[in-house]
Design brief:
The complex is a heterotrimer. By secondary structure, chain A is of the alpha+beta class. Chain A is built from eleven helices and 14 strands. In chain A, the strands form four sheets. A five-stranded antiparallel β-sheet of chain A has the order 4-5-10-6-7. In chain A, 54% of the residues are buried. Chain C has a seven-stranded mixed β-sheet, with helices on both faces. In chain C, strands 1-29-28-27-19 form a five-stranded mixed β-sheet, sandwiched between helices. The chains are: A alpha+beta, B alpha+beta, C alpha+beta. At the B-C interface, helix 2, helix 3, helix 4 and helix 5 of B face helix 2 and helix 20 of C.
């Protein structure tokens, strides 16, 4: 019955070995805020749980070629306390910090949020907009995956058997860059995003947008990178016309569902609204970072 | 299948217990250690009634496995008062009627204590957002927020 | 703290001075509650205890063809399995007719299904095993064969022609001629005064509109839990959290076929009830399992079970029609309410009919209510049952009327307010009430005149609840050191122990710190009606006052003996017996008298067993400010003030707490709470993630004003306060949103997708 094995390896190598040798369904454990809920409802029935939190690479936040390398099992509370990361990527932090409550923040991780692959995951659009990638370890060695390619469908990800994310890498921040994440929820906290929107942009010295990435959450089976939305901003001063074009591009890619959190119509409409508002915040931050 | 032998520190006391992989920290506290002050209101991390501190971090004990407590420091509601001296938060909750049925109170006290350790001078908004993961159905939160802010003021010596 | 005094006022219309009553003492059970020591339902263990699990129907509507428990029984560690067949058969006519009709047949069926299941989550069997995990695994091994029927999930579906019938024996009551065909419409109720059709003909302006609300749950944070233990001689002991240990005893005895005197119920602390724990779910199951297994059985619901299978309150539809003269005088009012009873008849629709127009002076009014069964859990009481939905309709209609008349909605209510002598729609003439005073307090309150910004709106709404009296018992026992124990039989759901202590202190004349209020079990205090109906501070309080007076009289007799004087020489002042005419006899404190108790006749106590009458109704008026985000439909509550006539606030802090808590439940009901079922009748939102109760960051402070117009029916003027606060907020919020959005929102909850859709309609 409850013969779930439990392992707490101290190195990546040991973790890979442990997962490779597992009979039946093995699951990795970071914060457990999704895993334990799904075990409780019977949705997941693992035979082995591998706690990754004793592996240093998964728990550290390091500078890396001017960018950041964040361990996949670093908690929201820990990452939020990292002043350098927060000042480079306030949008990623605000996305991560929106997940659940303070208690959830004490455990929830970027790696877990990404791999759980909920279409409404809060941190994912922000990571996509940031251009993040992840380092994956597995029985065949390590590989890199762009964050937007991790989730393949609701609750499904591109990791193969025995693989897990070691760390997420965020690129070096260009000058005059800013990112922001907004989500729509009916209450003020504690809800799953009905719509999520993230905008990351860079301006030149004249205030013209030279680079942008726009991502949406909860409006499709996976979080979406919206190149057409970015295109609407690049080369402009992010004025009202550009913002409206961006919002329209966002609305156009939405493929949401009707569920107890929102309707198709509602999500599509609000996706445009939030993208616009997030873009304005990102713009403000980019200007402040000159 | 044999159980895990967990060695931990709970409210400052070295503590050992046995548990299955499947048992949450909340299950272990309540069923193995008889520390029933932490409550199960939902089992899914949505109500905060099971709030405890793990290595100084506020978490829901229903979303952590008991076996993960090995080598860690756990602080529960039972350790908030010092002997028979109540913590200022506990005192303010009593004096300001910040509880009605009392089931959510342990969770709120642990969470509020964590807040004040993190930020001794929170604004009302900061208090409300920090405590958003603690549900109360009786009070409408008003007196809870006031008690926390007044306790904070007292602790600051203000 | 100056802020607090401004915002939380008490307006006293009695002018009476109290010494202890009205002070903000620390509640006696508080220490245990802030340290985690207090024992709630799930905190008990018994020696040799087993763990129970319930097998629940996954179908909303089905016949049970067979139940096979063989595999479950074979699992190691399983000690007992029960089904409906283990329970005494019930007669369809078995009911208790009191203030409400309680059908034991329906109750028994609800606790465990017999031939049919009526909702997703309906209990069909239960197991007891040596661990919770084994019990859960065993529950999964119970094989139930169902003949799945079409679920009936809404009033519309239930009342459609050829709708599947839930109960073949149900015929619509309250209609003439009495129908012969089975129906999902269980009952019709009607209350009327005068001739409403003729009166409408005289109106200058008529507002008529349909409203709708959804199923919402009481949302107590503590799931149901109990431990039941039986002995071979047939005695049963139950530890459980409930709103009435005597209620649990009576229902368990009835449903399990046990003599009342053999069942002992020990009340645990209760983690919220709001009416939802005035019935039993697990206790009869635990008792039968304990009997079969020969060991105590613990049963605790998880949150999904609470939402799926315990009584929410009725969702419903309402049509309200109000007519007035140009100057705002109401001439006629009409409501037709249709409430979902859930799986078995008995929604509070009649109470909705009685309360909706109660705040207003109307000589011509008609209120009709329909009770309809649907495949949802059986509705249970939720704080002023029936009233919030009716008030939502009436108060929204009045708001719309005020707009049509271009009149201040507060002035409209002032003009038509019920006062002493006004006849309520259900016939009773009000005694001294404080409704007008709440309106006056609203008018004076800074909230009413504060400026509003863009996309902001202000709503005002009133509400009424009867409050009840009922049977309560109290014993006041004097200890040898002069301290006192006050024992009553009502669970403390909101701080009532503190109020009992204060009232006893007032009579006895001693400090509250020397009084210990006790919530006694069913073998230690005479029968007490349950904790509900806003009755405890009123009725049990009255019993405490009378019992304390009885103890005082006993102590006067003892003092008379000690002094060798006549008892009419002995008065009671400041906690002492005082000899009227002689200086020679110094006053005797309770401790002095208690020390000599043996010599003067034995232990000293007082008691009172009463059926309290004279309960005073409570009226409330709430003001709500909201801001609407027109691009997303999100509503933010900016400011909220709850004003209520509370009679006399025995402990003002806990009275304020009732106003604040009820208001916030109403805000949740108005904005985000609702049950969501799929087309198969399966509940989709079985947790607090998607059953959205308000969180701390959703709300501002809830300002309160306690208006004290004393109830002449209580020695200290007490009115019940607990239920009225949930009656006004649905309309207060909806009226605020309607004004901010410039259109009438008549369907709750006003969640963002619904509001944005309404705004898009132009």
């Amino acid at each position: 019955m409850s013969d779930i094995q439990f392992a707490a390896p101290q190195t990546v190598k040991d973790a890979v070995k442990c997962l490779a040798g597992a009979k039946g369904n093995a699951r990795v454990l970071a914060g457990g805020t999704d895993l334990l809920v799904q075990m409780r409802t019977g949705r997941i029935n693992p035979s082995l749980i591998v706690d990754l939190k004793h592996i240093p690479e998964l728990r550290s936040v390091k500078r890396d070629n001017g960018g950041f390398r964040v361990g996949a099992a670093v908690s929201g509370a820990e990452l939020g306390a990292n002043a350098a990361f927060k000042s480079s990527w306030p949008g990623v932090i605000e996305a991560l910090e929106l997940i659940g409550s303070t208690q959830i923040q004490g455990r929830a991780s970027l790696g877990g949020n990404l791999c759980n692959a909920s279409p409404a995951a809060d941190s994912v659009p922000a990571l996509i907009a940031a251009g993040a990638s992840c380092t994956v370890a597995g029985p065949k060695g390590t590989r890199t995956l762009k964050v937007e390619n991790v989730a393949t469908g609701p609750g499904k990800n591109a990791l193969k058997k025995g693989e897990f994310i070691v760390s997420l890498s965020l690129p070096k921040r260009a000058k005059r860059s800013g990112d922001a994440y907004l989500r729509l929820i009916p209450r003020t906290e504690m809800d799953i995003a009905v719509v999520g929107a993230s905008v990351n942009l860079t301006l030149d010295a004249k205030g013209v947008c030279t680079a942008a990435r726009v991502a949406l959450g909860a409006v499709a089976p996976t979080a979406l990178l919206v190149p057409a939305a970015a295109k609407a901003l690049i080369g402009t001063k992010v004025d009202d016309a550009a913002l409206e074009a961006m919002a329209a591009a966002c609305r156009a890619v939405c493929k949401p569902i009707d569920d107890m959190r929102g309707t198709i119509e509602y999500r599509t409409q609000v996706a445009g609204v939030l993208a616009r508002r997030a873009a304005l915040i990102a713009l403000d931050r980019a200007r402040g970072n000159a | 299948m044999s159980k895990h032998h967990v060695s931990t520190t709970i409210n400052g006391d070295p503590t050992e217990f046995l548990c299955d992989t499947r048992q949450t920290l909340l299950d272990c506290l309540r069923d193995e250690l008889n520390l029933t002050g932490s409550k199960e209101g939902c089992g899914t991390g949505d109500c905060g009634a099971c709030s405890v501190m793990v290595d100084g971090r506020l978490v829901c004990s229903c979303l952590m496995l008991g076996v993960e407590a090995d080598g860690r420091r756990i602080d529960t509601i039972e350790g908030v008062a010092s002997g028979d001296t109540l913590h200022p938060l506990q005192r303010h909750f009593l004096e300001e009627a910040a509880l009605q049925c009392g089931i959510c109170t342990p969770g709120f006290i642990v969470a509020a204590k964590a807040l004040l350790e993190h930020n001794p001078n929170p604004t009302e908004t900061e208090v409300r957002y920090w405590l958003a993961g603690n549900l109360c159905r009786c009070t409408g939160y008003d007196k809870i927020i006031k008690a926390v802010m007044n306790a904070a003021a007292e602790m600051r010596g203000a | 703290m100056g802020n607090e005094e401004e915002m939380q006022k008490i307006i006293d219309y009695s002018g009476r001075e109290f010494r202890y009553v009205g002070t903000r003492t620390v509640r006696p059970d508080g220490f245990d509650k802030v340290t985690g020591r207090a024992n709630f339902g799930a905190d008990f263990t018994a020696n040799g205890m087993l763990f129970g699990a319930v097998v629940r129907s996954p179908h909303a509507h089905a016949k049970i063809k067979s139940i096979n428990v063989d595999k479950a029984l074979k699992l190691d560690g399983v000690k007992a399995v029960i089904t409906g067949k283990d329970f005494p058969k019930l007669d369809v006519n078995d009911k208790m007719v009191g203030e409400v009709v309680v059908s034991y047949y329906d109750m028994g069926n609800n606790v465990i299904a017999r031939e049919k299941v009526f909702y997703d989550g309906h209990a069909v069997a239960a197991v007891a095993a040596t661990s919770q995990e084994v019990a859960n695994a065993a529950a999964r091994l119970v094989e139930v064969e169902y003949d799945v029927l079409k679920p009936v999930m809404s009033i519309a579906a239930a009342t459609k022609k050829n709708a599947p019938i839930l109960h073949k024996h149900v015929r619509t009551g309250g209609v003439e001629p009495a129908p012969t065909k089975a129906s999902n419409v269980a009952n019709r109720a009607e209350f009327k005064l005068g001739d409403v059709d003729a009166a409408f003909a005289k109106a200058d302006v008529i507002i008529e509109r349909d409203y709708s609300t959804q199923t919402v749950h009481q949302g107590y944070i503590e799931p149901h839990a109990c431990v039941a233990s039986t002995t071979t001689d047939g005695s049963v002991t139950i530890w459980c959290s409930s709103q009435g240990q005597f209620m649990v005893r009576a229902y368990v005895a009835k449903l399990c076929g046990i003599e009342t005197s053999r069942v002992k119920v020990i009340p645990a602390e209760i983690g919220g009830g709001f009416g939802g724990k005035t019935v039993v779910y697990l206790e009869p199951l635990a008792v039968m399992l304990a009997r079969k297994a020969g060991r105590p059985v613990k049963m605790v619901m998880n949150r999904a079970e609470v939402l799926r299978a315990t009584g929410p309150t009725s969702g419903g539809i309402a049509r309200a029609k109000v007519g007035a003269k140009k100057d705002g005088t109401l001439v006629a009012g009409e409501i037709e309410l249709t409430y979902e009873a859930g799986a078995f008849p008995g929604s509070p629709v009649a109470l909705g009919c009685m309360t909706g127009f109660a705040p207003y002076n109307l000589t011509d009014v008609r209120c009709v209510g329909w009770d309809v069964v649907v495949n949802r859990p059986k509705a249970a009481a939720y704080r002023a049952p029936g009233a919030p939905v009716a008030a939502f309709a009436v108060e929204s209609a009045l708001d719309e009327l005020a707009q049509a008349l271009d009149m201040d909605p507060l002035e409209l209510r002032m003009k038509n307010a019920a006062t002493e002598g006004t006849q309520a729609p259900y016939g009773v003439k009000f005694g001294r009430i404080g409704y007008q005073e709440t309106l006056e307090a609203a008018r004076q309150h800074p909230h009413w005149s504060a400026p509003l910004g863009p996309n902001q709106g202000r709503g005002i709404a009133s509400g009424f609840w009867f409050n009840i009296g009922g049977t309560s018992s109290a014993e006041v026992m004097v200890n040898e050191d002069g301290t006192v124990i006050v024992a009553t039989g009502n669970p403390d759901i909101g701080g009532s122990r503190a109020s009992m202590a204060l009232m006893a202190a007032e009579v006895l004349g001693i400090d509250v710190a020397r009084i210990k209020p006790l919530v006694a079990d069913t073998e230690s205090v005479p029968f007490s009606m349950l904790t509900g109906g806003s009755r405890v501070t009123f009725a049990t309080g009255k019993a405490v006052i009378e019992a304390a007076q009885d103890a005082v009289d006993d102590m006067r007799r003892r003092a008379a003996k000690m002094w060798d004087v006549d008892i009419d020489q002995v008065e009671w002042e400041n906690g002492c017996a005082v000899c009227i005419e002689s200086d020679q006899h110094k006053p005797l404190s309770i401790a002095d008298i208690a020390r000599k108790a043996d010599k003067t006749g034995g232990a000293i106590s007082g008691k009172a067993n009463i059926n309290a009458t004279g309960a005073g109704p409570g009226f409330g008026t709430h003001i709500c400010d909201v801001e609407v985000d027109p691009e997303t439909g999100r509503v933010t509550v900016l400011r909220y003030t709850a004003i209520q006539d509370v009679g006399k606030a025995i402990h003002p802090s806990y009275v304020e707490g009732q106003l604040q808590g009820g208001a916030v439940q109403g805000i949740g009901w108005a904005l985000n709470e609702e049950y969501v079922y799929d087309q198969n009748g399966t509940l989709r939102n079985t947790g607090f993630l998607d059953y959205r109760v308000p969180v701390a960051s959703d709300l501002p402070m809830i300002d309160t004003v306690l208006v004290e117009v004393p109830n002449p029916g209580h020695p200290y003027g007490v009115r019940g306060v607990g239920e009225t606060p949930i009656v006004p907020p649905l309309a207060a919020v909806a009226n605020a949103v309607s004004r901010a959005a410039n259109r009438r929102l008549a369907d709750l909850p006003i969640s963002p997708p619904r509001l944005l859709a309404a705004l898009s309609k132009g």
